[in-house]
Each structure stands twice: as C-alpha cells, then as structure tokens.
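Q: Sequence in, structure out?
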Amino acid sequence: MNKKTTAAAAALLISAAAFADGFTVSGYLRAGLSSTFEEKPVLNTNTWLGGIYFNGDSAKTRGRVNIAWDGKNDAGNSYGAFLRLEYTGADEAASESWGYGGVSYAQAYAGLFGNVVTVAAGKLKDNWIASSGFEAYSVLDKKSGAAITITPLAGLNLTGAAIIDPTYDGTPSSIELNGNTFLGGAKYTTGDKLFTAAASFAGYGTFVGNVVYSGTKDAGVKGLLVSAETTIDTHKDTADFVQKQRAVIDEQVQYTGIDQWTFGVLAFQYLDKTSVDGDSDFTLAITPAVAYQLNSFIKFSVEGTINVPVYDDAPKSYATIVPAVTLISDKMANVYVWTSISTDQDQAKSCAGVGVKRDF
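A: Exactly. Output:
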C-alpha cells in the first residue's frame, strides 16, 4: 500500500470523527508460515490455512481495512460510502512482499424514492446481484463504473451498470463505449430467507447464475445449506480478463444442525480451462469436509479434495487431505495448526503450517 493511499486513509479516519453515527471500521489480518516436506524444505508466508473448504477458498495471507459510512434520512433514503484497503499478498516469501496492496473497493451510493432506486458509482462492491454461493461470483464486483438498482418489491433487485474495465489498457483513449461496457442482472430472496436465486450477464462475455436453499430455525430444515452456482465466459477474447477457465460450476451441501458439528461437501466442475491446451478439457474436484467444536478453546477439522482431469494427455488424478486444529483465543482471534498431505508431489506439495487470524 503506497504512501498516498495510507495518507488518504488516515485523513478519512480523522475526518470521520465528525460523523460517528453510521461510521464503522472493520477488517482482519491473517498470516502464516508453512514448510514443504522435501529433502530441501521450502518456507513461505503466503498461506494462513491450507485446503479450500474451511478457509472459504481463500488460503492466501491477507490484511484488510473496511471503512464505511452509512446513513438514512427522514424520507427513508439510505446513502453512504465504502472503502476497502487491502494487502493482497505477493509471490515473494520475504518481507518485501508485504508492500503489495491497494484499494479493492471505493464506492458511494444513494437511495431514492424510499430506496426503490439505488445509484452507486466508483470501484463497485456488488451488494445487489452477486451469487450467494460458495465463491460469490459476480459480473460487477470490483469493476469501475456506475450501477443503478431498482427494488420494486422486497427481496428483488434489478441492476444495470456501465463499466470501463474490459477495454481499459492504461490509456484514456482506450476506453470505448461498446457492448463490453454494459451488464445487468436480477436477484431475488424470499421473505423468510429460505430461497435465493440470481442471474446476470455482462457484455464482455460472462454469465453468472446461482440458486441457494438456506434453512433456518424459522423456515425449512434448520442448519441445511444447498447451493449451486456457475460462471461462464462466452467470449474467448476476454477470457483472461474474466476467469482462468471458460466455465466453472460448483455445488455445496452443508449441515450444521447437530450441535458442535459441521458436515459439508463441495464439488467443482471446470470446463475448457484457458490454462489447458485444446477446447474440450474437463476437470472434476470433490471436497468432503467435517469439523467438530470440542469446547470453547479447540476445534478439529479435516477435509480432502480429489482432482480428476479428463482430457487428452491429462495428468493423473490426485488427492490432498488437510487436517487442522483451531485454537480459539477469542471469538475474533484464532490460531490454526494444519498440514496438507498430497498423493502427487509434482502437482501439489505436502506441507505443514501455522496461521493466525485476528478480526476487528
């Protein structure tokens, strides 16, 4: 994070004292150290918790500060701003890598007509049509532009936006108004929060779809979550901008209805990855997971992922198993001790590590 960004954040924090109501600061820092199991072990600080399920498919060391100011006037219109400063990590394992970071979100928004219409602009955080699935896919999130959302009835969002990211190459003259600029989508959640469905499409070539069933104590099966989502890139010339694959589908089933236990299964299907030569490759990944909260201090978890590539000259299938112990210092501070055991050292190295996460 550069000096200008840091100074701007400090100025915002100081000025915020005058707007205490509705002003919040939150975030976290998560970091770790791990080592491979080799004749010459390799250390790195890039991973705080191995695996995919219990880290939310976000294993990298990271730090973030969220700065939000939200208000509401007498007419019932909401308004505010949101800024996220984030250290996103780097490939280097040395201390110099901690200098990498930037602004993930910087948006302002205002509601009109009793929040039937919401207008937002900046580097956008998709609060309206993003998938509610495991990966939270979005055609809008972290794009630069403006979005208008209409909420004609409770739980329904209809969003349209214009963005500049697909055509921007660093020169203002490259930003053209064309079909890649526009995107739109819809998302609906039932009043009891039991079902959610979303669909969106961007002119730059991406479709996102999602359905979720989430049982609560008041509706459905308490503790049961069932989700399916997909993101599909239909324009090959923008594939590198969008994804590392042409299409991915994932499904999650999770049950937390038994005290202290979490049971889950996560599955991914990758179609035509851009990293694989050819146009008909398919890869399947399945991750069963279970966790047990022993007491207020210790939690045990284990997950295993089997990867099955299906295409000409594909590497052989392999699996990883990740057992972990979480030591709970406080509800907002944990220590993680974990190991990742791989059946194929060429595709994924076995390793072990320790990580710490502190929320605020």
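The domain at 24-359 is CATH 2.40.160.10 (Porin).
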